[in-house]
Amino acid sequence: MKIASAFLCEEKDVTEGKLLDVGITNVSAPSYPAPLRKPLVLIVVLETADIDKEFEIHAGVRTGETTTFECVVDLKNLAYSARPTEMPAWHVRIVPKDQLHFPSAGAHSIVFVNEGVELYRIRLWAELDHLEDH
Q: What's the rounded Cα separation, in Å, for the pair 29 and 128?
């Protein structure tokens, strides 16, 4: 099992398993700590050897050397659903917005780990919303 890709997007960009527009590399909030306000899409690939395994991918925010895991993507039924398909089998999973939290503005990564092995990392820049007075 591996993650082929992961990215932030708007909810409207994922419809019926199709991706319309993707590629957010920075996030903003009026203050920190702040939740991630965009859904996160994972494209998970299963090989034949993965079919009878149960997987959990732990998603967390890494700042410097500190990682806080706040979300688990449960893939227990995913392997079984892949049995009738061709291999490798590609599956789209969504981590809902507000599941991960950034402690501060600045450089961060969202990491995905299975059994202690990092599968994928997204580097992001978190910034403060600068609202202009009108």
A: 5
CA–CA distance, 102 with 21 (Å, rounded to integer): 24
Q: Using the Cα atoms of residue 126, residue 106, residue 62 and residue 124 in order, give the sign of their dihedral.
A: positive
The structure's pTM equals 0.77
Q: What is the C-alpha separation between 61 and 69, in angstroms, rounded? A: 7
For the chain, which domains are there? Answer: 2-128 (2.60.40.10)
One-letter identity of residue 55: F
Spell out a b/e string for 74-98, using b for 16 or more CB atoms within 10 Å of the CB, else e. ebeebbeebeeeeeebebebebeee
**20-29, 89-98, 104-113, range with the lowest pLDDT:** 20-29
